[in-house]
Amino acid sequence: MALAKGYAATDASKPLVPFTFERREPDDDDIVIDIKYAGICHSDIHQARNEWGNSSFPMVPGHEIAGIVTAVGKNVTSFKVGDRAGVGCFVNSCTTCKTRDVDLEQYLPGLIATYNGFEADGVTPTYGGYSDHIVVKEGYVMSIPESIPLDAAAPLMCAGITLYSPLRHWKAGPGKKVAIVGMGGLGHMGVKLAHAMGANVTVLSQSLSKKEDGLKFGADEYYATSDPETFKTLAGSFDLIICTVSAGIDWNAYLGLLKVDGSMVLVGAPENPVPVHAFALIAGRRSLSGSAIGSIKETQEMLDFCAKHGIAADIEVIDIKEVNEAYERVLKSDVRYRFVIDMATLN
Ligand code: NAP
Ligand code: ZN
Questions:
Q1: Quick one: 9 exposed, middle or buried, by C-beta within 10 A (0-12, 13-18, 19+)?
Q2: Which ligand 1 atom is nearest residue 245's CA?
Q3: 45-86 pLDDT tens trace
Q4: Which of 1, 95, 120, 248 could form a cystine bridge with 110, CB 3.0-4.6 A?
Q5: What are 250-268's pLDDT values in tens digits?
Q6: CATH says 2-157+313-346 is which class?
Q7: Where are the domains of the chain?
């Protein structure tokens, strides 16, 4: 066992504090990564505060990890010491299946979460990226292209793939009108990715305060949802709406913005159920769906797409001692557009 340093939530109602814990010794299939940067995803906050009701403590959050490989087991062929490595929301899968479904593994019951989960033995907790190093099985580590700075690459491991996957699945591209609801960590990546895929992109944000940034990220149009006129002007406009909002909204009003046969996809995961009127769907043969992150294979594809199109996250790099303040700012939608912890500040 190797000692690791990090920050943990010890209870749903307490701030994160410095925390020392044990990481497993790497086996022949493992990769050891010196964590350089970890993004702060809103899911970290939901879980640190037990808003989804499934939290176990102490919890070291963090599933947007970028770092450098410091050791590899003897069976590892895809990484060597010194390589740039990324880890996202899960560190193992198919623990209940004979073969790995590389395309849809994020939906498997045997998925092992990077934190707030248990290793394959069912008892050893997994601890996440707000820490100095991590041990991950080969096959669950992404290669970060050289052209993407490590700090701006970290948020791609969750925010990037969570938008890339539904945009691809619902075929965002030329001729498609796509709306991104909420321009936070996930949303700003959605704007950049959908634009790079060739779709016509509209941002639906609470206000116009981030409009200039939205247009810079590639949005064609930008509307404030606080203005009731927006819902009249845009009624029946979109092929695809991706909702990244972390709280409850007027779901029926947003469904009314879809064309006939349009789809609204939830990636935001609010605490409370989503009440939808049947006629909001029936009236236009509309669909309401959800989407979770993406497979390791698709995450690597997304990273290569980002490298090709010069895309990365817009970030605010922080000292780990500022993590609790950063959580409060995320809750106020006061982040441009992802906080990333500089892990050198742990020392
Ligand atoms: P974030 O940075 O806080 O962004 C959420 C955005 O939603 C805010 O920036 C804000 O955008 C908008 N918003 C917040 N509160 C709102 C309210 N009361 N009414 C209307 N709009 C509101 O969070 P994030 O990290 O992008 O994560 C967003 C959600 O996705 C979280 O629930 C997270 O747990 C979930 N998530 C899901 C997956 C998945 O696989 N499905 C993966 C990662 C995260 P504006 O300021 O532009 O209005
Ligand atoms: Zn996340």
A1: buried
A2: 7
A3: 999 999 999 999 999 999 999 999 999 999 999 999 999 999
A4: 95
A5: 999 999 999 999 999 999 9
A6: alpha beta
A7: 2-157+313-346, 159-290
